[in-house]
Structures are given as structure tokens and as C-alpha cells.
Write a structure and sequence with these properties.
Keywords: Calcium, Hydrolase, Metal-binding, Signal. Its cofactor is Ca(2+). Pfam families: Sulfatase. There is one protein chain. The chain has two domains: about 350 residues, Alkaline Phosphatase, subunit A (3-Layer(aba) Sandwich), CATH 3.40.720.10; about 55 residues, Arylsulfatase, C-terminal domain. The protein is about 30% helix and about 15% strand. The longest helix is centred in the middle third of the chain and has 26 residues. The N and C termini lie far apart (about 65 Å).
Amino acid sequence: MRQSHLLFLLMLCAKGTVSAQEPAPHIVLFFVDDLGWMDVGFRNDRLHTPNIDRLRASGLSFERAYIPTPTCSPSRASLLTGKEAARMQFYRHIPNTTKHGFTPEGRTTEAFSNWPGDPVQLPTRNWLPLEEVTYAEKLKAHGYYNMFVGKWHLGHEPYHPIHQGFDRQFGTGNQGHPGSYLAPFFRHGNPLPEATEGEYLTGVLTDESVRFITEYDRSGPFMLSHWYYTVHGPHIGRPDLVERYTREGMSGKYAEYAAMVTALDESVGRILKAVDDKGITDNTAIIFISDQGGYFDNAPLSGGKTGGDALGEGGARVPLIISYPGVTTPGTRTSVPVQSIDIYPTLLEMATGKSFRGENVQGVSLLPLLRGEKMKPRKLYFFRSYEDQRSAVIEGDWKLKRYHSGTYELFNLREDLVEENNRYADSPQVAKKLRRALQRWEEQVGVR
């Protein structure tokens, strides 16, 4: 018995040693701007996204992934830090306009701005404070080289990616969106002045990410954060793709938008091919997520980026796919509600192989779901500026929305995905429980 017990312990130790010696994965994070939950080919057959579809087939698709504050800058702050944006006083996007006290180049000396007329009369941040700890800073401490490509929208030059844990940045300016997707891209502070007139922005950024992967020669792992400007407006598609969709019966802004989605898909495909050509596919984790819901029709989901219902499923629910070779089972799906704040601890667990125990981080690691295991149920909280809609909480199938005007809406998303049947009056116990939880959260966060 003693010999058997000793042999068992030795086997466990040997297994632990092998695990400890497994190399940390390279990581590629695709962060898309304004791509709706329905704006992918595997959910909408009018859009051609074969590469994103293949990515979904290679990993785990999260059917209920959400953004805590579905707005540009707050969404980015949450992804970087694992925190609910409202806790960092990120309530609205950084305006970058002279009307709000910024220079034409998108700079300001004021840490906060106010928005007259906004129901949320709280000062919102004009940059991500350097004191906030980003996933890049954490990964760097574990030997990662961090490359950032694309849109930042979390502050001007002193607060750019290279001051927030990233080793290099490319194509990053102060503005939240380009003036055009055809070069020259920006009217002021153009970060890509060498682009040839007429070049397409998505392609220029993709060229750099492909170059980075191809030429990477360091011994340690890399983390590539490819944050797209697309598919944010102005909706200008690549001409050849616009022509393709026009031939298929689309017209105007819809053909332009569809062309942008397919150009995005081609970009994803080129970067994944660079990973494959490098021979590192089996040791590269891929994450694909959007920063908020879509601008156009999100049916069957209600709401969207605009129109006063950004906390509707069409505004807060986004595509999320994670492919982690050796961990995720290809072609699987989960309906467990998760948020973008969960990416931060997930990245750290991927990098270290250890359970994440972070202070003041609301996100939780998604590794259990990636392994096909269960996660402890929890509530997800949301906050919104700009319109009457104020906050929301999701627990399981139930979702409660609160409005500045004092009204509440309660929906059972399993039975009513389109959020048409308000159950607030006929489900008083559920309504009371979630209302109290939401009130406590608002008080804790400081938005009550």
C-alpha cells in the first residue's frame, strides 16, 4: 500500500512539473467597434464572414456575452482593466471635440468633462488614469511582449497604449473614429500619414499585425491587441466589396456596412493565416469580441447602439468567440451570461496557469467554461448615459432595466428574447429581488 501511495504521489508531482513547463500561449485579441451580435455570417446569411465563422467552429462561442457600459470608451476601459466602467467614472465616450474643450487634435488638460442635457449629471473621464492596471501591464510582468494596433480612444498621447503597458503601438491617434476609411484617414493628428491615398484603413492596420507576427523573434510569448476602428461610422466600405454586395441586392448604407464587415472578416483571416504560417497555431489563444451592439437592425434583439435602448439585448449583447487549442472544444457554445470584464482575468490565467485572485476586479476567469466546466452563477450589472435608460441587472434568464424617469422593465430572456413582454407587474418577487440588488450596486458604485 505504501509503495502504491508513493507511486501515486510521484505521478502527481510529475504531472505538475510537466504542466508548469508548458509554454504560455501567444494571444491575439480582436476587438471590433460597433459589430452587432447578428452581424456575423453564422447568424446572418446575408453577410459573408467565412473566417470569423471558421474561428467560431474552432473554439467556444458565447451566446450571451455583454458589455457593462455599452459605449465606446467605457467599453475599452472595462476590457483593459477587468472593472465595471462606472466604478472608474467612465460613463460616456471621450468626446474629443472642441465643443467639449478639446483641441482639434483631440487633446485636453481637463481630466473630466460634463455633458449638459445628459440625464446622468456626473463628470466622465477624458482619459484612462495611468494608475489603473491594464492586462498589458500584468502580462508584461509575466514575460509577454505587448503589441497594440488600432483604435485606443482612452486619452491623448500621455495616456496612449505605450504608457499603459504596451511595448509598441501602431495606427493609434486621439480620435474615436476616422474621418474616412480611405486615406488620408484623419483630418487632425493622423497617425498614419504615410498611407497611400485611397488605401483602406482596415487593410493598413492588418498589414502591420501580419508583419508583427511574421517578424516576431523574441523567446517569450506575445500578446497582439488588434483593436479595429471598423465597423464604426462613417460607413465607408471598400469599393470592390461594396460592388459585390450591390450585385447581391443591397444598396446605400447597407451595402457600405456589409462591405465593412467583410473587410473585417478578411482582416481576421489574414492575421490567423500569419499565425498559422508562423507555425504557432497550436499555442495561440484567439479572442474575438465587439465593444457594443450594432448601429443598424439587430433583430431579433431589441435596441442597439442608438435609439434609446442601448441596454437592450441589441445594444449590450455582443459576439464573443474564444479559441484556445488544447483547452476549448471546437464548435461548442455556451449560454452562460458573461461580460467583457471577464477577459482580463482569463488572459492572466492563460498566461500564468494559476487561478486569478485580483482585488477590485469585477471580472471572473472564463477558463472553467473554456474547459467545458460549470461556473458559479452571478449577477451582471450595466450602466448607461445619454438617454432615459439608466441601469440594468441580469441574473440567469431574468433582466431588469431601470429608467431615469422612475420606471422599471422586467424580461425573461429565455421566453422573450425581443424584450416585448414586461413582466415587472406579474412577477413581483423577481422584480423586488433584482430591484434591491440593482439599488445596492448603484449605491456601491456611486451612481445612485
